[in-house]
Amino acid sequence: MGVRCSKSSFCCWHSSLKPSPHDFSDLENGGENGKNAFPGFTEFSLDVLMIATDGFSADNIVSEHGEKAPNVVYKGLLENGQWVAVKRFNRSAWPDSRQFLDEAKAVGNLRSERLANLLGCCCEGEQRLLVAEFMPNETLAKHLFHWDSQPMKWAMRLRVALYLAQAMDYCCNKGRALYHDLNAYRILFDQDGNPRLSCFGLMKNSRDGKSYSTNLAFTPPEYMRTGRVTSESVVYSFGTMLLDLLSGKHIPPSHALDLIRVKNLSMLMDSCLEGDFSNDDGTELVRLATRCLQYEARERPNAKSLVNSLVTIQKETEVPSHVLLGIRHGAATPPQPLLLTTTGEACLRKDLTALHEILQKNGYKDDEGIANELSFQMWTNQMQETLNSKQQGDAAFRAKDFITAIECYTQFNDGGTMVSPTIYARRCLSYLMTDMAQEALGDAMQAQVISPEWPTAFYLQSVALFSLGMENDAQEALKQATKLEAKRSKN
Predict the structure, then answer these.
(1) Residue 31: pLDDT above 70?
(2) Judging by DSSP bridges, how do beta strands 83-89 and 129-133 pair with one another?
(3) Is 71 or 286 the better-scoring residue by pLDDT?
(4) What's the pLDDT score for residue 87?
(5) For residues 331 and 15, what is the distance between their CA atoms, to the nearest angstrom?
(6) CA triplet 181, 295, 162: central angle to 5 degrees?
(7) What share of the chain is helix, strand, coil (3-state, %, to 5)?
(8) Residues 373, 378: Cα–Cα separation, whole Å
(9) Which of 39, 312, 367, 406 is the one with CA 20 to 30 A from 14?
(10) Taking the CA of residue 92 as centre, how many other CA atoms within 13 Å lie in the half-sphere pointing to its CB?
(11) How far apart are CA 156 and CA 159, in angstroms?
(12) Mind giving me the DSSP string for 34-51?
């Protein structure tokens, strides 16, 4: 069945290492005090990971990426009671098993409480899996961009910046300076509310795969020129993370730098932080972000310099992270999986055929109540032509002639005499069927504008976003659709 790891080897170090945010000396594995503090790297059998993830059940999916990053992350429960995150690569991502194993072992040699550490891997047959510590308290993106009860406090934002810089510095000192696609979804919070850098970004998504899968507006300039990641590229991405922490939004670096140049910092800062920080602190973080975002890579600071700068501006250093983050303390259980409806499951699978059947079956019932004020002249002069376009589009949609459906539905929309969210939904799916995901996203968003509480609009947005490789946004749209459908079913 594979190697069994003792429970104590996973857990014992959690309680023994509780340094302050300033003290990073005991967080590494390798010194005399910390030599045996962390569990070693394990080669897991496929059977063990199959059991842990319930056969890689869709219910256990934590995140899923599109064509640019072909992999899925599952949560899993080992026999010893430990939760883990299991990253499963596309079969073609790492054809050479030895190369994958060597790379995984190199990352697995890193051990720090600033990382969500890599515990092991599986390399049986065509399977390529990584096993890491599971972080139960969501991502930085969730707490910073999609918070429910309170915005992230200034002191916590500073701590996130420091811990991330310390993680980068640790990796640099251990010869692993390259980190692929650093963003707010790569920062995870452990059971104590401390931010950790995901170890998954220390490996590329494939042997030859692209290192950056986010919006190109956030990609380091030199990567755009050469397609290669350098340690300076990672510092640039760290600068975009500082902008996230300052603004509470994922703001493009070019726009932020324009605001900084004209000294319009009020437009850059998160309005939710008003009165929570001093101008000097804000100015210092802006200065650091600007240095990291220099166009010339050689002009950016190194990780050690960033740590030194961030240590001096930390606030409320004696307050535990879980208090600053506003979460319950202790080993939280993983979040309950999203209970998807039939439509939601089809969206997650990108099963366009199933979605076509659902839209066809639902017809136009969700257009009821949409205001369409038509003058008598419109009825007499334009309505017949508009209705003809709709009927022809519906016939083509039914027959799966999606090119014709697009043409007819476009004619209907251009007529301007009526608005129909269903028409936009059907044209959206027709665009998806013809590999026009960007146009599909536009139609799904237009359907949402017409019917803000319509689950179908959000479902279709999720499929379009999945198709565009925008995994995290797609997951958020899928969650919103599920919530709206659940709300509908209660009414």
Answers:
(1) no
(2) antiparallel
(3) 286
(4) 93
(5) 11
(6) 55
(7) 50, 10, 40
(8) 10
(9) 312
(10) 6
(11) 5
(12) TTTSS---EE--HHHHHH
Beta-strand pair 195-198/187-189 = antiparallel
Q: CA–CA separation, 173 vs 357, rounded Å?
A: 55
- Tokens 């996230």 -> residue: 244
CA distances from 190 to 131, 311, 483 (A): 16, 21, 26
- pTM of the predicted model as reported, rounded to 2 decimal places: 0.64
The Cβ-side half-sphere exposure at 292, using a 13 Å CA radius, reads 31
Q: What is the per-residue DSSP string for 267-305?
A: HHS-GGGTTSS-HHHHHHHHHHHHHHT-SSGGGSPPHHH
Residue ranges of alpha helices (H) inside 87-153 are: 97-108, 140-145
Report d(CA 58, CA 73) in Å as an integer.
10
Residues 202-243 have pLDDT tens digits of: 987 766 555 665 567 788 888 888 888 899 999 999 999 999
Pick the catalytic residue from 47, 96, 148, 181.
181
User: What phi, psi does 119 have (nearest 5°)?
Assistant: -90, -25
Q: Per-residue b/e over 387-410, b at no fewer than 16 CB within 10 Å?
A: eebbebbbebbeeeebebbbbbbe
Size of the chain, expressed as the number of residues it contains: 491
Q: Is 181 a catalytic residue?
A: yes
